[in-house]
Amino acid sequence: MADDLARTFDVDLFVIGGGSGGVRAARIAAGYGARVQLAEEYRVGGTCVIRGCVPKKLMVYAGRFADEFADAAGFGWSVPTPTFDWRVMKARRDAEVARLEAIYDANLGKAGVTILPERAVIEDAHTVRLVGSGRRVSARFILVAVGAHPVKEPLIPGAELAITSNEVFDLESLPERILVVGGGYIAVEFAGVLAHLGARTTLLHRGDKLLRGFDEEIRDALDTAYAERMDLRLNRTVERLDSSGSGIRVTLDDDTTLEVDQVLTATGRRPNTAGLGLEAVGIEADARGAIPVDAFSQTRVPSIYAVGDVTDRAALTPIAIREGHAFADTVFGGKPWCVDHGLIATAVFSTPEIGVIGHNEDVARRLFGAVDVYRSSFRPMKATLSGREERVLMKVVVDRASDRVVGVHVLGHDAGEIIQAVGIAVTMGATKADFDRTIAVHPTAGEELVTMRSPVVTKHPVGVG
C-alpha cells in the first residue's frame, strides 16, 4: 500500500458502471476533490432509471387508471368508455426516461466527473482498459458497479422466443395475450401492469404461492387478488415454447398448452461479471457470479471495491445508492461507515400494493421465540362507494420480551408510501407502546397501524412463541 501512495495515477477513482450506485459514488467522491472517471457502455442511469424502477412505476400508474375510471361511477361521475393507447404511454414514458438520463449526465458533469461511453474491463489492481478505444487508465481505486441482468431458463426448448424485463419496455404494442413466468416481485409487478392495461394475462409460478420470503398472510391475500384479475397458475412450470401461426404455443409440465402472443420470463437476475477481468486480479465470483465484498464493499484486492447488484447483497436501488455513498465517504471523505443490510423497507408495486419492513411472522418466531402479532383486515373507505371488492391487510409483529416492533406488513393502496414512514419508526427501534401512543390520523387506512390493541392468536409450533 505504501508503494501505491507514492505512485502517480491518471485518476483517483475509476468507476465501472453508470447505474445508481456508481453514479452516487462518483459524484460524492468528486465532491471530496477526487479525480473521477466513469465508464458506461449503455446509458447512464442503470437498471432503475432506464429499464427498471422508473419506467415500470410509470406503467403501474397507467394500469391503475382502469380501476379509477371504473370506481368513479360510485362517486357520481359519468365517465365515457375509456380506451388505452400503448404508443402514447410508451412515447411519454421513454421521453421521461431520457429526461432523467440527461439530468444524471448533467449532474456528473457539474461534479467534475468525466463520463466515458464505452465498456471498461479490469487489467490489474490499478488499471482498467477501455474496450472500444483500447486506452488504458490507471486509478488509485477502482469501483465496480455494473449491476445485474435478467436471465432466461436455458434448458427450456424455445427459450429464445421469450423476452425479459429488459425487452418488455421495447414492445411497440400491448400483447393481447401474454404469459408471465415467475413468482418474484418483477414477475408480480409486470403481470399486474399488463393485466390492468387490458392484456389477457397468465401468471405462472413453480411454487405454491407468489413472493417467497414475504409474510404468509400477505402472500395469500395477493394470490387471491391476482386470481381474480388474471389466470394465476401455481405449482406449474414451462416445458417448451414453440412458434405457432397465432403466436407462441406454451407447453406446461402437466401437458396442457397455452396460445399467447408473448412470453415474459422473470425468473431471476445474475450479476454482470462475465468478461469483467476479475480473474486478472484474483477475484473469484461466487456461484451466482457476484463479487464477494466486506461490510465496507471492499474486495480481497484492497484497491478494488464493488457496490450494488453486482455484489448480490440486496438488489434494491436505494441500497446501491447508500453503498456507493458509504464507499465515497469512507475512502475519500475520511468518514467511514457501512450500510446495514439487516433492516430494509421495501415495496412491491403490484395492485394491491405491498409494503414491508422487518421480519415476517414465521421468521420473527424463530428469531425471538415469543412474539405478539397484531392484525387488521378491512374494506377501505373508498370501496364503500365504488363497490369494489377489495381488502387492506396490515400486520405488526412485536418481540414480546422487549415490546419492540420487528416487522410491519401492509397490503393495500399506497402501501409503499405507508411503509416508508413506518420504516423510520421501526429503524429507530420503536416499541408497540410507541405505536399505541401515536395519535391516529382519521380517516385513513394508515391509522390502523396505531390503533390495533389486541394481538391475534395464531397457530405455531409447540414451544415457540
Helix content: 25-40%
Mean pLDDT: 94
> Any idea what the CATH architecture of the largest domain is?
3-Layer(bba) Sandwich
Unreliable sequence segments: 461-465
Give the CA-based shape.
Answer: globular
What does this entry look like structurally?
The chain has 465 residues and is α/β, with parallel strands linked by helices. It has 3 domains: 2-150 and 270-332, FAD/NAD(P)-binding domain (3-Layer(bba) Sandwich), CATH 3.50.50; 159-267, FAD/NAD(P)-binding domain (3-Layer(bba) Sandwich); 346-450, 2-Layer Sandwich (Enolase-like, domain 1). Helices cover 31% and strands 23% of the residues. The chain has 12 helices and 21 strands. It has helices at 2-6, 20-31, 46-51, 53-72, 86-111, 185-197, 216-229, 317-332, 361-368, 381-386, 415-427, 432-436; strands spanning 11-16, 36-39, 114-116, 120-124, 127-130, 136-144, 148-150, 177-181, 200-205, 231-234, 238-244, 247-252, 257-260, 262-265, 269-271, 304-306, 346-348, 354-358, 371-378, 392-399, 405-411. The strands form 5 sheets. Strands 1, 2, 3, 4, 5, 6 and 16 form a 7-stranded mixed β-sheet that branches. A 5-stranded antiparallel β-sheet has the order 17-18-21-20-19, sandwiched between helices. Helix 2 packs parallel to helix 5 (86-111) and helix 2 packs parallel to helix 8 (317-332). The longest helix has 26 residues, at 86-111. It is globular and about 70 Å long. The N and C termini lie far apart (52 Å). Mean pLDDT is 94; it is low at 461-465.
